[in-house]
Each structure stands twice: as C-alpha cells, then as structure tokens.
Amino acid sequence: MGWAIALHGGAGDIPLALPPERRLPREAALHQCLQIGVAALKAQKHPLDVVELVVRELENHPNFNAGKGSVLTSRGTVEMEACIMDGNTKKCGAVSGLTTVVNAISLARLVMDKTPHIYLAFDGAEAFAREEGAETVDSSRFITPENIERLKQAKEADRVQIDYTQPLQKDEKSESPNVNGDSQIGTVGCVAVDENGNLASATSTGGLVNKMVGRIGDTPIIGAGTYANNLCAVSATGKGETIMRGTVARDVAALMEYKGLSLKEATAYVVECNPRGDVGMVAVSAKGEVTMPFNTTGMFRACATEDGYSEVGIWPSVQD
After folding, report:
1. From CA 291, how far away is CA 283, in angstroms rounded?
2. What pLDDT sits at residue 22?
3. Rounded distance, CA 246 to CA 255, Å?
4. What does the alpha-carbon distance between residue 153 and residue 178 come to, in Å, rounded to a whole number?
5. 139, 177, 249, 310: which could form a disulfide with 159 (CB 3.0–4.6 Å)?
6. 136 and 130 Cβ atoms separated by less than 8 Å
7. Measured between alpha carbons, how far is 29 from 77 in angstroms, rounded to an integer?
8. How many alpha carbons fall within 13 Å on the CB side of residue 150?
9. pLDDT value, residue 172
10. 91 annotated ligand-binding residue
C-alpha cells in the first residue's frame, strides 16, 4: 500500500494531428498539476484536500473545459458544475449552474462541509457562495474568444458538441443534433489515495458547447461522474448522458465490492460495457493501485504512485 494520484483533462475524439498550440499547453498543465498533487501527498495532506487543490489548478487553466475555460450555453453564458467526495465517510458536495464562482470545486467542498445537504444549484448555489465568501467575478470574465468561436461553430452546425469535437468543413452537413454529447470532453478530475488508504475524488466541468440553459451533466451526480468509498475513487469523463445512465463511477465500486474484481478489472469492464467513444475515467484503489482506461480516441491524463511510476498521456500507450 502507498499513495497514488491520477487526473484527467477530458476524453473524446482527440485527433492524432492535434495542433501543438492546443496540445502542449494541456500537457504542461497536466505535468504541473500532477507535481502539485504529488507534493501534497508527500506532505501528508489528506486526499480530499489534494483532489480539491489539483482540480482548482485545472479550473484555473483556460485550455480545459472547467472554471476559466468553461464552454458556453446556447445563450452564450456559462453554467459550471462540480462534485467532491470522501471515500471513508462518503461525505460529498456538489454544485451546478454556477455563473460567477471562480472555483466550483471549492464551493462543492463548502456544501459538503458547511451544509446539511449534498447538492446546491443555480441561484441557491450562487447565494451560498456569497454567504461563504467564495471568490466570484463577473460572469463575463469566463467568456473567452475561443469559446465564443466554439459556440459559433456549434450553432452553425446545429449541434450540441463536446470540447474536442472537430469543426465541420464548409461542404459538410451536420446530421441530427448530437444530444448525447457532453461537457465531459474537456472536463477535469482528480482521484487520490494516501498511504493509509484514505480515498477521495473530485470532478469539475463547464458543460456542453451550445447546451440548453439549465442542463445538468454527470459530473455533479454522485455515482455517475464522481464517486469514492473505502475501496476506490473514480472520476469519469465522456458523454454525460451515457455516464448517468450507466452509473459508471459507482459500477466500478460495486464490481469491486460485490464481485471481488480488482480495480483494473472493474474499470476495464465498465468502460467496455459502454458505447465506444463515450467513456473514460481515472481511478485509484485503497491499495494504491491506479488505472486510466478509456474507449475514446484519447484522454488527457496523468498519474503517479509512491513506488516511482509516473505517466502523462493523451492517446493509448503501448501497454493500453
């Protein structure tokens, strides 16, 4: 048994020819956030604090679909959501519909720590943020030129699209709108376990490009996009409606608990049982195991373990 950490910056149809200006900043952010998480675990920070810290850093990075880089709704606004969960106590907090909160994951943590509830959304969540003194900015601060362009492309194609969806060429015609696409592609998440087997998971997202106002994805749903218990911690990414239908994160824990599968067996089974191109996840076990499976073209991901193993990747590696 030893500490382990894994994080992701979203899964999806990430082209092998992804331009360096889109690839390199994300890879650098993954390296930086992994180092921050490893340092925190080495300093014996609780995994709950570690995953919040790492996801805050990812939210502050404009090249991921969370926090500062959140994509836009059909009305050109932002609606952010996040979830955090402690494995041993199963305490958790979740938020949706945020428009001014700088770090959604930290507001989710405040919901967990300061209220009798699990989930706050929209006006109630914003009011709670102000009551607790959470950092907020004018919602216009989240609206970047890149995401305005993404929304324009999605509207022109008459579709709801995920972050790594490639623009249609001018002579292409969109098929029926992609109602199954999700925020998750571009979503960020982190899972961690310390040397005592304490586990935690955190996930944050800006949502779908061109999503309907008020749409909620899998990220803040306990057992779908985010879950942790005394056996494992999971943060999922992919098409949110698929992940919600399949209770993907909880299924991993259930397979370990009720069928005795290992972490790698359980995550591989869950990923394979879902439609190809829809699901990715990062997960750690109480034993210090780590795995990062996906059935999409790629997944921005990174992990490290106490025994010295470290990996940062996008597309399938040889061992995958």
Report:
1. 5
2. 87
3. 13
4. 14
5. 177
6. yes
7. 25
8. 29
9. 47
10. no
Low-confidence ranges of the chain (pLDDT < 50): 170-185
Q: What are the pLDDT digits (tens) for 5-17?
A: 999 999 988 999 9
Whether residue 237 is annotated as binding a ligand: the answer is yes
Residue 124 annotated in ligand binding: no
Q: How many CB atoms lie within 10 A of CB 170?
A: 6
Q: How far apart are the first and last CA of the chain?
A: 23
What does the DSSP assignment read for 38-99?
HHHHHTT--HHHHHHHHHHHHHT-TTSSSGGG---BTTS---EEEEEEETTT--EEEEEEES
Residue 239 marked ligand-binding = yes
Please say whether the beta carbons of 217 and 94 come within 8 A.
no
- pLDDT given for residue 165 in this prediction: 62
Residues 93-130, buried b or exposed e (16+ Cβ, 10 A)? bbbbbbbbbbbbbbbbbbbbeeeeebbbbeeebbebbe
Q: C-alpha distances in angstroms, 210 versus 26, 69, 273?
A: 23, 15, 28
Question: Which residues are marked as active site?
Answer: 187
Query: pLDDT > 90: what percent of the chain?
Result: 82
217 is in an annotated binding site: yes
- Other beta carbons within 10 Å of 141: 12
- C-alpha torsion sign, points 119, 122, 127, 131: positive
Query: Is 238 marked as a binding-site residue?
Result: yes
Angle at Cα 102 formed by Cα 98 and Cα 104, nearest 5°? 55
